[in-house]
Amino acid sequence: MSETLTIDHVGQRGDGVAYADGATAFVPYTLPGETVTAAPLPGHPDRRALQAVLKPSAERIDPFCKYFGKCGGCAIQHWRPENYRAWKRQIVVDTLAHAGIACAVDDLIDAHGAGRRRITVHARRDADNALHVGFAAAGSHAIVDIEQCPILDPALAGALDVARVLADILKPTNKPLDIQITAASNGLDVDVRGTGPLPTPMIAILSGIAEQYKLTRLTRHGELVLMRTPPAITVGPAQVLLPPGSFLQATTAGEDALGALVVKHAGRSKLIADLFCGVGPFALRLAAKSRVLAFDSEAGAIGALQIAAKSPGLKPIKAEVRDLFRRPMVPQELRDVDGVVFDPPRQGALAQVTHLVKSKVALVIAVSCNVQTFARDARLLIDGGYRIDSVTPVDQFRHTPHVELVAKFVK
Length: 411
Ligand SMILES: C[S@@+](CC[C@H](N)C(=O)[O-])C[C@H]1O[C@@H](n2cnc3c(N)ncnc32)[C@H](O)[C@@H]1O
Prior knowledge:
- By secondary structure, the chain is an alpha/beta fold.
- It folds into 3 domains: 3-60, CATH 2.40.50.140; 87-112 and 251-410, Vaccinia Virus protein VP39 (Rossmann fold), CATH 3.40.50; 118-232, CATH 2.40.50.1070.
- It has helices at residues 81-98, 159-169, 200-212, 252-266, 283-286, 299-308, 350-356, 371-383; strands at 3-10, 16-20, 23-27, 35-41, 44-55, 109-110, 118-125, 131-136, 143-145, 177-184, 187-193, 217-220, 223-227, 232-235, 238-241, 271-275, 291-296, 317-321, 339-342, 363-368, 387-395, 404-410.
- It starts with a strand and ends with a strand.
């Protein structure tokens, strides 16, 4: 059964939103003002599959990737860049307004740069036992075979080939695999997950692949298979040796943009706490001028930061493993701290914020990859006596609904 719908606007997940018979329908790959035909999606009463665009928008452009519409990685390639950018900034504006937070929102900073430097490639067999290697399909767990992805940093060249070779070799394990590949500054760092224990001859074959493809390192669930050279990135004067599968901002330009905003907002602070610090892209930049306390729950990330912190020219960085959900910094520990930076996972920093509002810390810099949890945390900071001074959205996940932001709070 097919429906004809008129798209009202693009929603926060990137789908066109239409209103039909008092109900809301979400239609992917559509734009405001378009008339489209769409079919129901079994099991998803409010979602539709786009069939045809009967009346296209003047803002519609041709997508540049042959997998667009099948691969779930990109939601928007069919919208003029200026309209796309305005929509993305508006996600931040609307979410903050909904939380009753009145503040100016800066222009969106484009931080796609050279492209994504980190991917997770999935390898799965289908019902006919055929192996598929690529990214998850839009709206399903099926895998779309991907040979080439135009939004990747050229430093990831060859990454999809390596993933395919590894998946093929590991086919006898008969397990779904997630192959995480990071473009370090000296080559590809690969961590394969999902294999389960492997026999020694298989490990030897994998080592051969790491040599053949000149990987910096190949690990399996973080366990070393072969290290040709330690994978590293450069942050300011420091070389950071990456732990296997560690978090990194999605693009180098994203890390630079977020880092520059954090440093700008930190100003002349003497002592800064960098919470959820990861391998230290903010701590290592801040330490050009400030002493830094840095915490993260990942021991590997903290170990990498402790080594990088010894680089010449940096003020002291004290980095420790700490679960900040269970053991947030309390006001007494924050007594001598001039400013707090937090950059939590998508859940946000609720526990930490409830202690920050009881502290005397005058400056809080929030970095977020989830505007919903950011709005919740910002509301608590404001109700607890902070004033929101600036909000800057940063776009390192171009073509998707994901938006990062950096906000400054003072009291
Ligand atoms: C969005 S990343 C940010 C990392 C770093 N600021 C960066 O820019 O690369 C979130 C970080 O939070 C850490 N994390 C997750 N849960 C945590 C917890 N309960 N306590 C402390 N750190 C946590 C992760 O290990 C990860 O490094």
